[in-house]
Structure formats: structure tokens, C-alpha cells
Amino acid sequence: MNSLLRRSLLTQINITRAGQKLRMDQNRMRSGNEDGPLHDLPDFHFADGRAAPITAKQEKWMKTRENEQNILNRIKSEVEQDRAVVIDKIKGMEDKILKTIKIKQEKKKQRETLFNNDQTTEKKE
């Protein structure tokens, strides 16, 4: 009975890692070690000031971040190109609409002057 009660309680309680909720509330990574100085900085440095060699794991993380940046830059350039195409299409449509509006206004003016001329000639007669 004790094990059944414990299992039911474990399924009902939201079990999280230590500090996970706090980090998520602060808009940080879930476990705290996905990114940051532990991955970016060397583990040690020599007493004479030379930097430590980059470990395989650090190199892996650096390549991963570089790949992510390359992908994001490629997507960004594609979006900018698509945006430029859409803006050009919108400008073309706007020009076309303005031309049709101008043509309709000119036709309306011509009709008005035509009908006004007809009415004035009828009054004279």
C-alpha cells in the first residue's frame, strides 16, 4: 500500500530539477549549464599568462554556436530578400492602382465637361 501511495503522489506532483523553475522564471536556460562561461572560457590559465588549450568539448560547443549563427544569418538574408521582393510587388501594385484612379478621375472630368457643355448649348438655344 505504501508503494502505491508513493507512486500516485509522484505522478501528481510536478517534479523538477533543483533550481529549474527559478532559472526558467528568469528567462535563463533550463539546467544552467547549456551556455555560458563554463562552456566558453578555458578551464584554467598558466601562471605566466598563457591561455590554456581549448578542450574538445569547448571546440564542439564553439562549432555548434558557429553553425547556429550561420543558419540564423542565412535565414535572415532569405527573409530580407523575400521582404524586398514583397515591397517591390506592393509598390508596383500601388503605382498601378494610382494610375487607374488617375485615369478614372480624368474620365469623370471629361464626362462632366461634356455634359456641362451640352447643357449650356441647350440653354442658349
TrEMBL record:
It comes from Dictyostelium purpureum. InterPro entries: Ribosomal_mL52 (IPR034596). Its main location: mitochondrion. GO terms for cellular component: mitochondrial large ribosomal subunit. This is Large ribosomal subunit protein mL52. The keyword Transit peptide applies. It is found in: Mitochondrion. GO terms for biological process: mitochondrial translation; translation. The keyword Zinc does not apply.
